Amino acid sequence: MAGNYFPRLIFISVFIFKLLITIVNGADIFLEWNVAINTTVHPFSEEQPHKVLVIFGYLLCLHLPSFNPPSSSSEKRDESYPLRSSDRSTFSCEECDQFHLHGRCARAPLEFSHHPLHWEHPFLVLQAGSGGSSCVLCQESGKNFIYRCPSCDFTLDFKCALLSHAQKFLEFKYNLHLHPLLFIEDHKDELKKLVCSTCEEPLLDSIYVCIDCRFYIHKKCAQLPTEINHPCHRLHPLKLESHNKSVFCKLCQAKHSGHFYCCPPCNLDIHIQCVWPHPIIENRTRHEHPFNLFWRQGSFICDACGSEGNNLSYICSICHLQVHKKCTSLPRVIKISRHNHFVFHKYLKQEAKIEKQECMICHHDVKMEYGCYCCLKDDCNYFVHVNCATEDTNLYYIVDSENPDELVEKPIESAITCVIEVNEHGDATKIEHVSHEHCLVLGDMTEDDIDKHCDGCTLSILGSFYSCLQCNFFLHKSCADIPMKKHHWFDIHLLDLETNCIFQCDICLQQCCGFVYNCDECEFSFCLKCAMIPDTLDYLSHEHPLFWDSKYKGKCNACGLGVYDGYRCKSCKYAVHFECITLPNVVRHKCDKHFLKLTYRDESDYPEQHYCDICEERRDPNKWFYCCSICDTSVHRGCVLGKYPFIKAGKTYRYEGHSHPLTFVRKKYHYLECAICGEFCEDLALECDICSYIVHWNCISPFFSLNFVSLFAHHNVDQP
Question: Which of 157, 252, 305, 387 could form a disulfide with 142, with the two C-beta atoms 3.0–4.6 Å apart?
Answer without folding.
Answer: 157
